[in-house]
# Entry
Amino acid sequence: MDIAAEDILRECGEFEPYQCIMLLMFCIINVLVSIHYFSQTTILFVPDPWCYYDDIVNKSIDQIREIYSNYSNPSCTPYKTDVSSVDFFGANNTNDGACDRWIYEYDHGYKSMSSELNWVCDSAWKSTIGQSMFFVGSVFGTTIFGAMADSIGRLPVLIFSNVMALIDNGPYS
# Structure
């Protein structure tokens, strides 16, 4: 027996105001969910960092970029000499230590979680782990809430999960 899509839709009911409201609410939820998922990318964006020194803090980004341009890994290269010294561009000016402060090139003043917590260079793995844990939590949450929706209904689970998200909304959620 060949069943057409129109036959199935006829069995479900005509497209009435209730279906319009449900479709509109579903669209709103989808927009909010997509913003939530894509926010992970914007929150963890890393602007270009340079090791902080008192001598270069008042220089423009172009001047800082010029100072660091002679090094193969300028974002993660600390220096052991004064940046205003004559032999600043010498071969032995790098330091094996790590930077603990950074100067960032912010795009339109936008600061990210990675720049506020200095998750760059040797600490860059932290943002990757954080983003991975977010999506691991999403997989488990989807599985658990899906099973709950099958047993107690979709509407109570939808309300419960949104209340949980509202309560758990921390400064970087």
